[in-house]
Amino acid sequence: MAYEPIWTKEPDKLSKFELVKLEKDGLDVIRTIIEKYALEGYDSIPVDDLDLFKWAGVYQQKPKNGHFMMRVRINSGIMTSAQARTLADISRLYGRELVDITTRQAIQFHWLTVENFPDIFKRLDAAGLYSFEACGDCPRTIVGNPLAGIDKDELLDTKALVDEVNSFFMLNRDFSNLPRKLKMSISANPYNNAHAEINDLAFTPAIKEINGEEVIGFHVMVGGGLSAKPHLAQKLDIFVRPEEVLKVATGVATIFRDYGYREKRHHARLKFLMADWGAEKFKDKLVELIGELPARGEDKTIGWQAAYFYGVQPQPQQGLNYVGLNVPVGRLNADELTQLADLADAYGDGHIRTTMSQNAILSGVPDDKVDDLLAAPLLKRLTPAPKPFISRTVACTGNEFCSLALVETKKRAVAIAEFLDERLALEENVRIHIIGCPNACGQKQIADIGLQGALVKTPEGMVEAFDIAIGGTLGGGAQGPAAKFAQPLKGRVKADEVAGVLEQLLLFYKSERTADEGFHAF
Ligand code: SF4
Question: Is Iron tagged as a keyword (predicted)?
Answer without folding.
Answer: yes
